[in-house]
Amino acid sequence: MRTLEGDPEWTASVERLLRVRGVRREQVRRGQVLAAVGGQTAHRRFTARIHLLPAADGGRGTAVATGYRPQFYLRTTDVPGRLELGGSGSAQPGETVEAAVELGRPVALEAGLGFAIREGGRTVGAGTVLAVLD
Fold it and tell me: For the whole model, what pTM was predicted?
């Protein structure tokens, strides 16, 4: 593999052109990750620290509860998911909580990955992956 500019460093948010023999354009979707064999893998479940924005900052005006199903934006992909909140089973706007998340499809995940939580076209929260569960 060689880069077009001769720069061997590939980092997030830097666009690169990569040709992979035997892979058709329609097999590749926005948000997919290219990783070395044995490297990062796709998962559906993880624990996260989540901060819900207060209504004054564009967040929800009401609490969320276990079963809440927003969109999760991870890197450049969005995927529906479901929150499972421990303790009281709910969280108010402005609160930071730990929760389990189950995504609608597998996504490349690792501890420390940040993500946005969106609902109805607006960002209502943000989070960080604490641990991958499966």
Answer: 0.79
Give the DSSP letter string of 16-33: -----TT--GGG--TT--
Residue 95's alpha-carbon distances to 23, 51, 90, in angstroms, are 44, 6, 10
One-letter amino acid for residue 2 of the chain: R
In the chain (134 residues long), the average pLDDT of successive 10-residue segments reads 54 67 77 67 94 97 97 94 94 97 94 96 97 92
CATH (domain of 119): 2.40.30.10
Query: Do the Cβ atoms of 123 and 58 come closer than 8 Å?
Result: yes
> What domain range is 122 assigned to?
36-132
